Amino acid sequence: MRRRETACLARHIGAIATRMAWILLNTLHFSLFESSISVSSPSVCCPFCGLLCDDLEIVREGDGVRLERPACPRASRLFSIPDPGQAMIAGLPISLDEACRSAAIILSGSRRPLIGGLGCDVMGHRAALSLAEKLGGVVDHMHGRAQFRNVRAFQDGGWVTTTLSEVRNRADLIVLAGTDASRYPRFFERCLAPASQFGELTRKVVVLGPALSIPAMDGISVSSIPIDAGRLGELFAVMRARLAGMPARAADVAGVPIEQIEALLADMRAARYGVLVWNAAELDFPHADLTIQSAVNLVKDLNQATRWSGLPLGGDDGGTSAAQTCTWQTGYPLRTAYEIAGPHYEPLLFESDRLLKTGEVDALVWISAFDPERTPPAADCPIVVLGRADMRFARAPDVFIPVAVPGVQHVGFLHRMDAVVALPLTAPASSSLPSVAQVLAIIQGETNHAAA
Amino acid sequence: MLRLKNGRIYDPAHGVDGEVRDLYIEDGRIVAAPGPGARIDRDIDLAGRVVMGGAIDLHTHIGGGKMNIARALLPEDHRQDPVPTSGGMHAGCGHAAPSTWTTGYRYAEMGYTACFEPAMQPINARHTHLEMGDTPMVDKGAYAMLGSDDFFLRMLASGADQRLINDYVGWTLDASQAMAIKVVNPGGISAFKFNARSLDLDEAHPYYRVTPRQVVQALARAVHDLGVAHPLHVHASNLGVPGNADTTLATMAAAEGLPIHLTHIQFHSYGTEGERKFSSEAERIADAINRMSNVSADVGQVLFGQTVTVSGDSMKQYGNHRHASPDKWVVMDIECDSGCGVVPFKYRDKNFVNALQWAIGLELFLRVGDPWRIFLTTDHPNGAPFTSYPHLIRLLMDKRFRDSKLDEINAEAAAHSQLRSLDREYSLYEIAIMTRAAPARSLGLTDRGHLGERAAADIVVYRDDADREAMFAKPEYVFKDGQLIVRDGKVVNVVNGALHVVKPEYDKGIEKPLKDYFDRYMTVRMEHVRVSNEEVCTCGASKLIPHVCKGRAA
Fold this sequence. Notes:
The complex is a heterodimer of chains A (about 450) and B (about 550). Chain A has about 450 residues and is of the alpha/beta class. Chain A folds into 2 domains: about 80-145 and about 315-450, Rossmann fold (3-Layer(aba) Sandwich); about 150-315, Dimethylsulfoxide Reductase, domain 2. Helices cover about 35% and strands about 20% of the residues of chain A. Chain A has 13 helices and 21 strands. Chain A has a 9-stranded mixed sheet, with helices on both faces. In chain A, a hairpin with a 6-residue loop joins strand 20 (about 410-415) and strand 21 (about 420-425). In chain A, helix 3 (about 95-110) packs across helix 13 (about 435-450), helix 4 (about 120-135) packs parallel to helix 13 and helix 5 crosses helix 10 (about 290-300). In chain B, the strands form 6 sheets. In chain B, strands 1, 2, 3, 4, 5, 21, 22, 23 and 24 form a 9-stranded mixed sheet that branches. An 8-stranded parallel sheet of chain B has the order 6-9-10-11-12-13-16-20. In chain B, strands 17-19-18 form a 3-stranded antiparallel sheet, with helices on both faces. At the A-B interface, helix 1, helix 4, helix 5, strand 7 and helix 6 of A face helix 1, strand 7, strand 8, helix 4 and helix 5 of B. Strand 7 of chain A pairs parallel with strand 18 (about 330-335) of chain B, so a sheet runs across the interface.
């Protein structure tokens, strides 16, 4: 009996002690219940690159907005909002209604339109897929060439990947393959510079290729190994062979001395959580999907003994959302045509530029609501553009319809490059301009009349 | 008012076992007989027909990031089952990893009116709701995954008070718009990120030093204290590992009498007997379920053919990758929150292990006495695609058919199994329990899964066919909230379902340490993880149905 009471008391003291430990932990590491936390103005999510940073502070300025912080050149440029713009047919001003009707007439007469660009949010992608389904169209994203380098490697063998917060907290060795991540201005600030929640982390960054613009970061060593991106596949293949216990006979591989490769491989095997980063857009050479495949196979092999993950950079201009939405609605990650028997996936044949060059599509709907510089490709068929109001053209498209910018002028949803995190877009400078989804719905409705 | 006349009613929630009765439907609800002189707008004579509530699947991977990985990974599987645009129905694909549209249509065409996605990662919640919003016909709900997320493990490791854990669990349910809590390989997904390849129930996590047992206990307690109807939904440690039955039994015991649901228990009922060191422990597991009234389970039946396994259990999926067929697989570490693994799989009836898995699942169905505590699932698509349910129902209801299939499987596995000695055949009443009344009760859906007054008019009418597979594959009528949506196994009216969520009470003070944690360590703000009520409908649900929780004092 006494023993039980003692045990009870001990448990009680234990409970108090653990509760205090929790509070102490919070006091030390978190700012805590007792202390107040600073109330900042609500942060907004930036839709202008695949990082989707959601800590931006925006101030209203006249009819528009200005990025207060952080300093990101890309966000700064794209958050400054243009005038409402003007719908046009062949460069001549016209009402929105007339422009939509004109677009519907073009599309109703088309046997197979390409619904391309797809630079918009999930609601826009839903509307684009709905229109493509109705018209028997094909869908592809403006960054389809880069996307499908990844998709082909993925569909052939799968991969092991990670997400941004995992990198931020766990990565002790980051190998950048054929990229210095400079196309993602805040990658280092967001994912590598901050402290890990798992205590002290000594990070090393190794760049395979030129390392021009990697910022200096406290306690992070940066080194680089010069290698042509087109020969990364050779390097990874030799590393895999070495992991499999095969001897290395060459003195160098792709210009990298074998001793340097051995040293890198030793570091990679010693990493607790390694991350291999690539950006498919920068692996711009024939059969780059095979380079990606060799990279992800290396990651797979390294996992036999320690932990490694891949991190494919990308997802600009709504690319991740476009692929995700098309995948859940059709089973396929874009480059899909709506045909009589159902969705038809042909990742090689249904590439935008090829379809336009060969004349296998006879109309183009170009959707580009994030960046005025992403203008439609040259095409011999009629072109309908749903673009930012400040988009300028070398040659006026058949129809131009200015649309609201997602995340600035209208609310919505967008996926980050890792596809796991979908964030809510707000409208800090809401506008009377219609969204992509609204314009596409009007056009789809009008195609009934136009076809009749 | 609609009258369904003369049908044979199976309504286990009210003890109705095949009585001939009329049902009256008005404004989407079942109503009392209106008395003489009432105006009946439409009469349907159902003489000889079997009438049940709409079926409810409480564990089916219908949507979310890892299903989308599975879809993107398997174009060759979709090509076998293209789905054209037709009527008001969207094009898509079917089979192992069907498109969202096709998932909704095909569930409805089998008489299902509600489906619950069991593994929504809170960080992936918005994406999951977008997918479920494009899944038509059926009501939806999702279980939020916890137990390998670092915030929770930090709390547990620092000995946080149970009340704080309850607040965090409450916040997670609220913020991710979830219906229940699931734990997957408790602590193990996190341990894999620290390079552990297995984590047993009483093994310390390599970093936090807490054990899976502690994780299960803290979460089961939180779910209970918050008053969430569905018990903690547990994907136990050691999935698929020969000999894991011991872990499964120990996990049941770890609940210490609190309600606990063991999911896809077939994958957790393995022994190590025999030459191949792989054997059935279905009898021991079933006996334990029969004995422990706090335990419920769904089976996760394996059926033969091509499918794809999708799981939050990155650790065990990594371990299984050498079985991938076709030979490709995906593993992902996710955002200090969870992980996932996608491994295509082909179950072969002539393969000893696969054949025994098939027999173990059936043994579990037949040995668990109480159909209120064992649910019909294939853990879609892990054991088989959900479209194989009618076949599974026939296996349970028809011993001759079952024995004929037993004759076809790997002979050694058939010889090892005691399946042939089990004579039980499920009755229609028992099928109605395990696919309707019991899941509704387990989830706390008071107006679903039954045919009493004021119930939502989710009603299914079958022709009474001796071939139960044919019967359950093609209902004659399906009504969703009183509207006719399926006729003779084909969608005739496209509707969208509601989203069911729980809204427990919790102390919002938890947002202070949580926000600070997110600001310091995450690449997303806490405020943006939260999915608002309004967003759920923008995502596509027809409406949000909040279920109140009656909290129990901690």
